[in-house]
TrEMBL record, chain A:
Keywords: Cytoplasm, Repeat, TPR repeat. TPR repeats lie at residues 236-269, 593-626, 627-660, 661-694. It is found in: Cytoplasm. InterPro entries: CiliaryAsmbly_MitoImport, RPAP3-like_C, TPR-like_helical_dom_sf, TPR_2, TPR_rpt. Residues 318-329 have a biased composition (Low complexity). Residues 160-172 have a biased composition (Basic and acidic residues). Residues 160-184, 312-369 are annotated as: Disordered. This is RNA-polymerase II-associated protein 3-like C-terminal domain-containing protein. Residues 758-848 form the RNA-polymerase II-associated protein 3-like C-terminal domain. It comes from Ciona intestinalis. It holds the Pfam family TPR_8. One of its GO terms (cellular component) is cytoplasm. Its main location: cytoplasm.
Length: 881, 352
């Protein structure tokens, strides 16, 4: 008995020895097979029962292979009564309801008389066992080597003949499968003898089959099943599904007509809209597609698919309007590629409409903000960089001067006399005598016109345009808006999309309070060249005017500004190249914006909120209408405890999208931090109106209400933070930030300024994730330096030391005396805490690096702080560096 | 976790052995078939009320029942076809518990029965198929009383094999139809009823306890074959290769006989297997990115993978009968050799 037992152990666990059943061994083991064996050995309990080790091993296996068979555990029976009361209730009620429903349908009138095929002719197939003579497709019997009798009968010659015959026979078997494949199921179901309820049930089951076929990528079959379902009952759901099947089969026409039908039945079906837009896009019905998409985006502004398709459609739309020549190529994507490549071949477009114009009223900050962008552009487009280099970070004066040099470049040189007049005009302009300058420019124009008349072979249009443009600038300065607009119109006719002219005209329109035209001009200038700050600022400014006048629906007043922009282009400039460039720029701008935003997001994840703010600010300059950057920056400000700036950003975002939930939510948080509970509650209520299920908003609402009520004496138990709130709605925060963290943070801010021992410990431990230094900082900020040792008590850990060091560095960034002193204070008082020496001794290398960096920074800030070099050296010694 | 849960909603112990159970279509009732200790047959009809099972009808017949099906009956009549221990095939009108059709179909016990063409599932005439210990697989049309319409018997002189399971499939139009049969020696044969030929055969090494197509009324798609020794196989029967046949995968489950595999009527890619140790396992089949590959100009099937969704041990004895409700997603009834029947609910099936 003992022997078998012993054998059993050694056999079953084969190469699993006792020392393998160990945490460390399991941790280090990377062989999944071995781990599974260890797990089995552990579970067998032969070497003892270690529940924690088993679960540890399970975790490890799960980490390596979540579908491992070793993880399959047998679950015991679960009865309804074992379930939580509410779940049990749901099940019981569900069955009850179903029963009632089925009862009411059971009393169907008995309909009979289906046309059933006749009875099959009686046949017998003798193929019950191995012998399969009747079956031509089965393999011929192999004679076993020991079956001598059979070998005696074996006729080699005959077999040879047979072998030759066989290949001819074979095809006969395979086609059977093919024939039946080709034989189609009918698209309709014979519905005779079915009651209405039955038809509905059949229709549902056919639709289910369609869905299954669709899932297995068998779209043809799915189409058949959906058609069958529709033949029984025309429900929107199945027609909609069939539309999708058509789309997958690239049968756009049918898809469109199906969608039409669905939309007749359910006008608000967004899926059908989206599908119809897809089909219409392929059918080259761009405008209709656009209408569908804007409908979808109206209802669901964050539908990424819709916006993606819309982007494509708009590209195609502008293409088809600008270049009919390229219309011949079939799909939108191909067109785009072709045009982009042609654009690249043409290397350097005329420099006329680049972004050198900087009016004097543009503040310096604009320049300095443009500069870092040009640095990030680098990888994207070399052309752009060269252009931005021209602009440079220099002062306004130099950029303005830079307006002129390129004037000399255009191919046909200006006649000497004209040039002279023009130069003196420029001098007058620079010295501020705009009226005189305008007169000179008029003179130059006249002379040039005369020259042009004399020698028609020379194309002076460029020069004339330039002069007009300059005169327009003068008129603008003088305040003669009408003349300015007239001149700009001349320029635009002569040269097409000239950003300078566009912007000047926009200014003139703005002065005349024709905001719509101004807005359109600014926007077109912007689409030509994204980097023109003026255009962006102008567009925003005018947009806000328009909003004041027309209310939130001001865009509809513009009757689709973008379309007009494109049409406008068409009228002023049929030059395709121009449109291409514009598109390209748009694209580059997009890319740049995206990359900046992503940078910002990664910084947020890392916890470098300052850097993130920088990124978002840049991205904001590129795409001022993109809400995401505002909301994201607001988040960063929240984290940096700058609620006022956060509120500003949120307000900006809400201006652009009055229904932006994120922005409202964040504004509420910021307001709460400023103790403006009323505003916070207002915002939260709005959020909940828009999205009643938003959990975090609910939670926040509760907190704010509480806070508002007992503002004076309140204590929040931090443990709350890691209960429900960790599961907050992810859609709200786009998966970018950890709302749990936000929650903790916002709660912390509401706690009264001094901290008791227990509270500090709880708060400190509740912080998630563990590298969120800013959150820790907030906790620590409420602690006077001298209290640190007693608060920390004997709980000093290496993590705590490192976090303190990081916080100290945060303080040092400010460079102010109090902050620096506090940084020193934090580090020095921490060293007085109990068990500090022990913890410091076990600091790992990277940890030590953090600490020594903090002390280095302290040393660097010696001048501002009220501590001596000796103090810092002391600190170094106590931290054992 | 959004995993389906297998919940035992109602349980009832009986005083006789239960072999099979079937939902009565379009109702909250089901029927159990079994054998009284004295060797007589038992048909019981139960109805589920909110918190209990109510015995609606019961009937004792001369011979024990082994299996039954509604699948060849019209939705209006809802007649139950049964196979008994003596090889008799009967069709019962459950309203008055009278048989409307009786035939001595086989010389020995009918192990398995299946139907097609009724209940709106499958095109063509309603037909029944029976598999028996006498080795024959017979197809019946209830309009023809005396003889089967098709018969698949072992060659004379060959040893007959015990047929343990039968299933209809491929009934997507009025002509096509096939029968799959599994035998005690591990043979699986697929007969084409239109051409009356053996379309495919294989051997899974262990006795075949259950064969089932994922759906009967579509061009044959998948076939699950469960067997002794805790193994079952899934075949992709869409594409047949002239040499290697159908692509398949094999899975171990239950550590004992896999008695049954039953596909969810509402989703063909989900199925439950029942084990000899009283356990249930829920599986999901996942298709490969491409189901067919070309090999030397001949197309060959590619098998996907199985996902293990959930399990539950509901009994200590083999679970020999399981039927999903065709009307309510996730509702099923099981019978086991511990003489108990259980109504189970599998939750969240629409989310997998």
């Amino acid at each position: 008995m003992a022997a078998t037992l012993f054998n059993g152990t050694s056999n079953s666990s084969n190469d699993i020895t006792i020392d393998m059943l160990d945490y460390q061994y399991i941790d280090n083991c990377s062989n999944i097979k071995e781990l599974e064996k260890i797990l089995r050995a552990l579970r067998s309990g032969k070497d003892g029962y270690y529940p924690h080790l088993i679960s540890h091993c399970e975790d490890k296996v799960r980490g390596m292979n979540p579908t491992s068979k070793a993880l399959r555990k047998l679950n015991p029976i679960t009865r309804t009564k074992d379930l939580p009361a509410d779940e049990a209730e749901v099940i019981t009620n569900g069955i009850g309801e179903w029963k009632n429903e089925i009862h009411s349908n059971a009393s169907d009138d008995q309909v009979n008389g289906c046309n059933i095929p006749p009875v099959r002719q009686t046949t017998t197939l003798k193929a019950g066992t191995k012998s399969t003579v009747t079956n031509p497709s089965s393999k011929s019997q192999r004679i076993r080597s020991y079956d001598y009798k059979a070998w005696d009968k074996f006729d080699a010659d005959k077999e040879c003949e047979n072998a030759e015959k066989q290949p001819q026979e074979k095809p006969r078997t395979t086609p059977t499968s093919k024939i039946h494949r080709n034989k189609k199921m009918s698209d309709k179901v014979d519905a005779t003898g079915l009651s209405e309820y039955e038809m509905l049930v059949r229709a549902t089951s056919e639709k289910d089959k369609g869905n299954e076929a669709f899932k297995s990528a068998d779209f043809e079959a799915a189409l058949t099943y959906y058609s069958r379902s529709i033949s029984l009952s025309r429900t929107a759901a199945s027609i909609n599904n069939r539309a999708l099947a058509y789309i997958r089969l690239q049968r756009w026409k049918e898809a469109e007509s199906d969608c039409n039908e669905v939309l007749q039945l359910e006008p608000d079906n967004l899926k059908a809209r989206l599908r119809r837009a897809t089909a219409r896009k392929e059918l080259l019905k761009y405008i209709e597609a656009k209408n569908d998409l804007s409908f979808v985006l109206d209802k669901e502004p964050h539908n990424t698919r819709a916006s993606k398709i819309l982007e494509e459609v708009e590209q195609n739309l502008s293409k088809s309007s600008s270049g009919d020549a390229s219309q011949s190529s079939r799909t939108g994507r191909k067109m785009m590629i072709a045009e982009v490549s042609s654009d690249e071949e043409e290397t350097d477009p005329p420099t006329a409409n680049h972004c050198e114009i900087k009016e004097k009223d543009v503040p310096d900050t604009v320049q300095s903000e443009v500069a870092p962008i040009s640095a990030t552009v680098n990888g994207d487009d070399t052309e752009k960089v060269s252009k931005d280099d021209k602009v440079g970070p220099g002062d306004v004066e130099t950029t303005f001067a830079a307006e002129e040099p390129h004037v000399e470049q255009p191919p046909p040189e200006m006649p000497q006399s004209v040039l002279k007049i023009k130069n003196s005009g420029k001098e007058l302009f620079l010295s501020g005598q705009y009226a005189d300058a305008a007169q000179l420019y008029t003179k130059a124009l006249n002379t040039l016109q005369a020259c042009a008349d004399k020698s028609p072979d020379l194309d002076h249009s460029c020069n004339i345009a330039l002069l007009y443009n300059n005169r327009a600038a003068c008129h603008l300065k003088v305040g003669d808006d009408k003349a300015c607009i007239a001149d700009c119109n001349e320029v635009l006719i002569l040269k097409g999309m000239d950003t300078k002219a566009l912007i000047r005209r926009a200014y003139a329109f703005e002065h005349m309070e024709k905001y719509q035209q101004a807005y359109l001009d600014f926007r077109s200038a912007q689409t030509v060249d994204w980097s023109i700050k003026q255009a962006q600022d102008g567009a925003n400014r005018v947009a806000s005017h328009l909003r004041d006048i027309h209310g939130p629906k001001w865009k509809s007043v513009l009757t689709g500004d973008r379309m007009i922009v494109t049409q406008h282009q068409k009228t002023t400039n049929s030059n395709q190249e121009e449109a291409d460039r514009e598109k390209k720029k748009e694209e580059i701008r997009r890319n740049l914006f995206d990359s900046l935003k992503n940078n910002g997001n990664t910084e947020v994840k890392k916890g470098n909120f300052e850097k993130a703010v920088e990124c978002y600010t840049k991205s904001m300059n590129i795409c001022p209408d993109e809400i995401a950057s505002y909301t994201n920056r607001a988040l960063c400000y929240l984290k940096l405890n700058k609620p006022v700036s956060a509120i500003e950003d949120c307000t900006e975002a809400i201006k652009r999208d009055p229904k932006n939930i994120k922005a409202m939510f964040r504004r509420a948080q910021a307001n709460k931090n400023l103790k403006k509970y009323k505003q916070a509650l207002d915002d939260l209520n709005k959020v909940l109106q828009l999205e009643p299920e938003n959990k975090s908003a609910h939670a926040e609402l509760m907190v704010s209400k509480d806070a508002a009520k007992k503002e004076k004496k309140r204590k929040i138990i931090i443990e709350d933070a890691d209960s429900d709130e960790e599961a907050v709605n992810i859609s709200e925060n786009n998966g970018k930030e950890d709302t749990g963290k936000e929650e903790v943070q916002s709660k912390l801010e509401n706690i009264k300024p001094t901290v008791e021992l227990e509270e500090f410990g709880n708060a400190w431990n509740a912080v998630q994730p563990k590298h969120a230094v800013s959150t820790y900082k907030m906790i620590l900020d409420r602690v006077p330096v001298k209290n640190i040792p007693e608060l920390v008590t004997n709980k000093t850990t290496d993590h705590m030391i490192v976090t303190f060091a990081k916080i100290a560095r945060y303080h040092l960034i400010a460079g102010v005396k109090e902050e620096v002193d506090r940084a020193y204070g934090i580090l020095s008082s921490l060293s007085l805490a109990q068990r500090f020496n022990m913890a410091a001794m076990f600091l790992s290398k990277p940890d030590k690096k953090h600490v020594s960096a903090a002390i280095d920074d302290l040393e660097a800030a010696l001048d501002t702080g009220s501590f001596t070099k000796a103090d810092v050296e002391n600190l170094r010694v106590t931290y054992m560096l | 976790m959004d995993k389906p849960q297998i919940i035992t909603h109602l349980e009832k112990g009986m005083n006789h052995t239960l072999y099979d159970c079937k939902w009565i279509p379009r109702s909250a009732r089901f029927v159990t078939l079994g054998s009284h200790p004295r060797g007589t047959g038992a048909i019981n009809v139960f109805e589920i009320n909110q918190r209990e099972l109510q015995l609606v009808k019961e009937c004792e017949t001369p011979t024990s029942f082994k299996c039954g099906t509604f699948a060849a009956s019209s939705l209006q009549a809802r007649n139950l076809a049964t196979g008994d221990f003596k090889g008799k095939l009967s069709v019962w009108d459950l309203e008055n518990m009278k048989s409307t059709f009786d035939v001595d179909a086989h010389s020995e016990i009918i192990n398995a029965i299946d139907g097609v063409g009724g209940l709106g599932i499958g095109e063509g005439a309603p037909e029944l198929v029976t598999g028996s210990r006498d080795g024959a697989v017979k197809v019946w049309d209830v309009r023809q009383k005396d003889a089967p319409v098709a018969c698949m018997v072992p060659e004379e002189g060959e040893g007959k094999r015990d047929c343990w399971s039968v299933a209809f499939g491929d009934a997507y139009n009025s002509e096509e139809r096939c029968v799959c049969a599994g035998y005690d020696n591990g043979d699986v044969k697929m007969f084409d009823l239109r051409t009356m030929s053996l379309k495919w055969e294989t051997n899974v090494k262990n006795g075949v306890c259950c064969v089932e197509f994922d759906r009967k009324d579509i061009p044959k798609n998948k076939l699950v074959v469960s067997s002794l020794e805790g193994k079952f196989k899934v075949f992709d029967v869409r594409t047949q290769h002239p040499k290697s046949g159908f692509a398949s995968l094999s899975e171990n489950a239950h550590k004992s006989t896999v008695w049954l595999a039953r596909h969810l009527p509402q989703n063909r890619d989900l199925f439950m297997t029942t084990g000899g140790s009283g356990s249930l396992s829920l599986w999901k089949y996942e298709y490969p990115p491409k189901r067919v590959k070309e090999e030397d100009g001949v197309s060959k099937g590619v098998i996907g993978s199985l996902q293990y969704l959930q399990n539950s041990t509901i009994s200590t004895q083999p679970v020999c009968g399981l039927d999903w409700s065709p009307d309510k997603l996730g509702l099923c009834v099981t019978v086991a050799f511990d003489q108990a029947l259980r109504v189970l609910i599998v939750t969240k099936l629409n989310r997998v």
